[in-house]
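We treat protein structure as text, and this decision shapes the records that our systems exchange. Because each token names a local backbone shape, the row as a whole describes the fold. For reference, a complete record is included directly beneath this paragraph.
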Amino acid sequence: MQSIYELLEFDKIQQQIASNTQSDIGRHRALSCSILPTIDELAQELNILDEMMVLSLRYGHLPMMVSSNLEPKIDYALKGGTLTAEDLEAVAHDVTISLKIVESVRRREGAFPLINEKIMQFIALEQLEKSIHKIIGPDLGILNSASPTLNSLRRSISETERKLTTKIQTAIEGLRDYMTEPMATIRNGHFVLPIKTANKAKIAGVIHDVSDTGVTTFIEPEWAVEFNNQIYLLKIAEREEIQRLLKELSVMVALNSAPILANNRLIGYLDFVQAKADYGLSIDGKIAVLSDEKIIELSKARHPLLDPKTVVANDFHFDQKLRLIVISGPNAGGKTVAIKTLGLMVLMNQCALALPTSKPARLSYFKHLFADIGDNQSISSNLSTFSGHIKNLAFIAEEVGADDLVLLDEIGTGTSPLEGEALAISFLDYLLRAECFVLCSSHYDGLKDYALSGENVTNASVMFDETKMTPTYILKQGVPGRSYGLEMAERYNLSSSIIDGARKILSERGHDRGISALDNLQKIIADNENRERLLKDEIAKNEQAKKRLIEREEKLDDERSRLLEDVELNKRTIIEQANQQIEAIFKELQKPDVKMHEVIAAKRKLKEIAEEDIEVTESSKEKVNVDDYVAIKELGIIGRVERLANDKVFIVSPDGFKFSAKLDQVAIIEKPAQVRLDKPLDLPRLTSDVKLELNVIGLHVDEALYEVEKYLDGARLKRFSQVRIIHGFGTGALKRAIHDYLNKCDFVGSFRPGDQHEGSGGATVVKFK
């Protein structure tokens, strides 16, 4: 029987995770990722994975670098072997990685306690790293400073080679006529001269080589032999010193073998968890919630190996009351994909991986996952499809327990339909008694009836678009599905006489009544789903409308508060400026035409204005008309109605400011006694967003006039002397309406079309009095 990992193609997921690793051990763990043996270990690993996914999203990856598996190197050192510079650098590199990881997580240890607990297991080996890098350089060469002996030997080699080079250069000048080319070369580790073979007898020395053509003989002159021998002996001593240094480091590594290997494995583990986190984020995965009660609750689960742009997400639900689901529906309709999706979700969860679901799944821990999926035919074992199928069922029946999940694709196929159907029902009864969870697929009508009437069992179907005659791959629990065999045969141009004959046979056997009933049931379900979808849409729209109303109400409250503040500020400002004017009068008291009692009376009157509210008398009129006086009681504002528009009223206050309100927010009052100032007081602006121009292009006339009124009020408060209104050309209606309005404004001194730099006739420049 194939393993569950092979049947569900879990190796492809392992490879995707492995592609994210940077260490040998991490890659090995990814490729051998398997079900964790206990629920406690699974819970621990899922929690660590959750922390790693959050850490990666917020702060990026751990500072992970390439790390090799050090176990073979350490074993060699423990056996007395001398490690190479490359091996020793790998050991030192691990120390550097561990330090960087510890530093990275320690800054955020409070947020990631489980990861912090792991990195606290790193053992400090900084001294070992320093010892290695004291001897081995970045290029993996042995440093001259590694030991005084090595430094002295290399200086001697360099000096001897320098002397030899000088001697050779001198010799070349004297032997130029005897040489094929005026330069020295190296043969067998010795400096030699390329002498013409015809002249070789004229040079005393040792012959090391002859060119392929025989024209050149490479001769080491006698005087060079001594130099080369010295260099040779010095290099032997150099190699021996290097070996001694490497041996010392290898002994140090052997003495620290346990912490080195522990750190190496921990780096690999963290690399593996980070790779799982990367994979989880790439599939928009969620960490499942482990449940103590036996349950499978998956929302919009997507098969992770299918194209995410086209894969259909499905829901799955099992509990103690619903332990067996029978899927039916057309061929190539997605039954097998649904079974594999469920299997992969459970398998991935128990390997401590995130799941591609719309929200965190709820899953219990399953001791075993059994599956019989696909063609079980085996030539080598001399098994037919049915024989292989039965062999798998026999194995499952022998091993299955209450805490297991069983996946069965096309149970009972490969033999006569009656026997296969009976065998399937009996086997499912056996699994129900075993109290495991089962998801199986079948075309047998008997199994559909079994799922309709059985306890702890339900039907499910993969939906089919009868208009397009194509599967939708949507799994729907609670309803059996049709096979659509004749319809598919018709689509693929099977002779109509054959199809008609088949339909006649089905009709004679009463099978068409069952199909009709099933069709009606599916239509009812589809209608209910459509109504449910429409209801959800309406609920969503209502929620949005409610949200907009709340936001609008909050905005109106804010505007009302700001307006009250502005009105109070306006009142205080008028009083303050009047006070300033009277104080100026005090400074002129020495003038004979100013009387003290007049000034005192004026100040007393001003104080009374500041302390008293404007008294208004409500009118008996019921309908608001233009030129009526109204009060916005909530804001303490009174004014004359300038115009009405729909349910809004536009008001001009006694001091010339304009406000708008809804009709139900105002009360009609008698015309109040107005306090007039001989000269209007300059007021500070109430808002900070008034600019030197207003653009009303694209607005209707009513909208534009409303904006112009507000804008001119703000411009006056800001004490602008001149502003520009941009209305565009258009039909001219907007421009005429604005000009008509400006003619009625007593605070407008003049207005004119803009010049060529101000928008010409598409703009109007307004000057205030």
User: Anything to note?
Assistant: The two ends are 98 Å apart (CA to CA). Residues 511-587 form the longest helix (77 residues).
